[in-house]
Structure formats: C-alpha cells, structure tokens
Amino acid sequence: MTNTSGLHDHLGYWLRRLSDEVHSRFETELARHDVTVSQWGVMVSVFHGHDTTKAVAAHMDIDPGAVSRLVDRLMAKGLIGREPDPASRRTVRLVLTDQGQALVPVLAELADRNDHHYFGSLDAAQRRQLEQWIRRLVGAAHPTAAPDNP
Q: Strand pairing partners for 34?
C-alpha cells in the first residue's frame, strides 16, 4: 500500500470543481443575453467607474490587450463604446451604451442568484470568512495582487 495522496485529497481539486461549476452555470445564464463571463466582468467594472482599458485590466487582473479585445466584442454588440477624454487627448474612456447600462443590473442579478445557488447555505459570517480565506490564499500566491471590491 502506498501513502501517495489521491485526487480527492487535494483542496485544489475541490476548488477547481467548485469554480468550474459556478462559472459554467453563470455562463449558461449569461449566454441568454449574448454575454460571456469575461464580457460581464468588463461591463460591471465600467459600470462601477473603471473607465479605461488599463483600469479595467487592473480591476479584473487580466492583460490590457485582453480587455481591448473584450471591449471590441462588446462594441460590436452595441453594449459599450469608446470616447475621447476631454481632459486628456491621449486617454480613451470606456462608456456603457444605454443598452449596456440597462443590462448590467440584469446581469448582476444573475450573478447574485448564481452566488446564492452555490453559497446560500452559508450564513453571512461564514461567507465573509470564506472570502477572507480565499483572498488570503490568492494574496499569498500573488503578493503583488490586491483584490478589491466592485
């Protein structure tokens, strides 16, 4: 008999399973609105005031080039636009269209319901504790990352 750990002995396995399930269910819901999870991330970031490609990339912790491609796709869908910043000729602001502005609360409700589906069995204190642990683990793995809110 060996003392080698098995697949189900690893927290990483269970975290990936949970993440995959949460993501997959949410993606299915968003698809009904022709939006992907990544596109929703851009839209909700802009909705909450992260209005440049660089700001959205930092907020989502992804490459600015990826944000630019996501914005291009959202522009093609009529959900977001780019506008020059009147205060700086070199800065381009991201703005939600009227359609995008109206859609964000609908998508946020889907996100809330998805969270409740998976984490609703936790009380508020347990949920905060889980979030703190996850943020701590992410921070320990990536000390320069500083996850923030909205």
A: none
